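Weekly sync, protein design subgroup
Attendees: M.S., D.O., the rotation student, P.L. (late)

Item 1: inverse folding check
M.S. brought a backbone from last month's batch and wanted to see whether the design step gives back something sensible before we order anything. D.O. pointed out we never logged the input encoding, so this time it goes straight into the notes. Structure tokens as presented (122 positions):
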């Protein structure tokens, strides 16, 4: 399996979990710009949530969250700004950046979800 296929599995798991457990309204998936990609874009009440999904088979190389470094955060923020500019006619949008970690351990998926995982970065 290639990285994209593995990523899609993780995103599918995250979407199902977000809808079932958080009651999020999923607006978009795999939104891509020249800055990078946002895995999931959702609404949580009045907040527009940009969700980075990290999926790993085990933790031998660290926890998935650790891969969302400052450079990755900056790219996500720039892509989020582009999304808001394209889709909304209002720059006063309540935005939030979350991370969904999914770890596959012997066929069992463990999810750790972090709201407000990082702040806006330029």
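Designed sequence read out in the meeting:
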């Amino acid at each position: 399996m290639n990285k994209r296929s593995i990523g899609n599995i993780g995103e599918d798991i995250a979407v199902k979990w977000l809808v079932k457990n958080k009651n999020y309204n999923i607006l978009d998936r795999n939104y891509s710009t020249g800055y990078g990609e946002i895995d999931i874009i959702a609404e949580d009440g009045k907040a527009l949530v940009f969700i980075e999904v990290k999926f790993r088979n085990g933790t031998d190389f660290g926890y998935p969250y650790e891969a969302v470094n400052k450079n990755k955060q900056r790219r996500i923020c720039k892509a989020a700004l582009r999304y808001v500019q394209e889709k909304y006619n209002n720059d006063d949008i309540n935005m939030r950046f979350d991370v969904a970690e999914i770890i596959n351990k012997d066929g069992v998926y463990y999810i750790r979800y972090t709201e407000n995982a990082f702040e806006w970065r330029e």
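Discussion: The mean pLDDT is 90. DSSP finds two helices and five strands in the chain.
Action: P.L. to compare against the previous round before Friday.
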